[in-house]
Write a structure and sequence with these properties.
InterPro entries: FN3_dom, FN3_sf, Ig-like_fold, Striated_Muscle_Regulatory. With 216 residues, this protein is mostly beta strands. The protein has no helices and 17 strands.
């Protein structure tokens, strides 16, 4: 059954910071919004309501209003959010984020993860990685280096705004050190029995140990 009440929520943005939330109500599926401030950016979504409650929000429309301009704007997902480092090492970072809060329930989303080092200036040094899941591991990174990271969501009708920017460091690198092997049992090993050789190695990234045995 169609909703009896359609509520339209409009939020004005100034340099993508919320200034004031406004809302307008209608029983139709279209309405004219006025007055709008020229050369201002608006963010808009729709919620349907009836006596049983409210629906999930629609996709979000973000547009810059220019007086006298008449064009169609498609709804796009809101930005991904809660970008964070799940785990890290000297040469890799595992990142995760939350999907957009506002998007169609059946909308197929994909993501582009962007990262760069602040010491590398220019847009040409930004690396972009496409993925279909809200998480990814960045590998072959430089130890003890800061990286700037952000992510965008993509839908059929367009791309979201960028997520918040994350500054993340890789761990410093430490030279590999291996202690002398320890053999257990320490007494003479009888033919056919087994022994345990313990090798403790330290370093970042984690070193790889190779054990060489000679003799007859």
């Amino acid at each position: 059954m169609a909703s009896k009440l359609l509520k339209q929520l409009i939020s004005g943005l100034n340099e993508f910071h919320f200034v004031q939330g406004m809302q307008a109500q209608t029983n139709a599926t279209a309405m004219e919004l006025q007055p709008l401030t020229a050369n201002s950016t608006y963010q808009m979504f729709v919620v349907a309501m009836n006596q049983h409650g409210a629906s999930l929000p629609s996709s979000m429309i973000i547009f810059n209003y220019t007086e006298g301009e008449d064009k169609e704007v498609n709804g796009v997902p809101s930005p991904p959010h809660s970008l964070s480092v799940a785990s890290h090492s000297a040469t890799w970072l595992t990142l995760s984020w939350q999907p957009p809060q506002f998007s169609l329930p059946d909308e197929k989303l994909s993501y582009t993860l962007y990262y760069k080092s602040p010491s590398q200036g220019g847009q040409g040094n930004v690396t972009a990685i496409k993925t279909t899941v809200p998480g990814h591991s960045l590998e072959k990174l430089t130890p003890n280096t800061q990286y700037v990271i952000w992510v965008k969501a993509h839908a059929e009708k367009g791309d979201s705004l960028p997520s918040e920017t994350l500054l993340a460091w890789t761990d410093p690198a430490y030279p590999a050190y291996v202690e002398p092997p320890t053999i257990n049992p320490v007494n003479l090993v009888v033919e056919g029995s087994s022994m345990t050789i313990l090798c403790i190695a330290m370093g970042t990234p984690t070193p790889t140990i190779s054990l060489y045995i000679s003799g007859t």
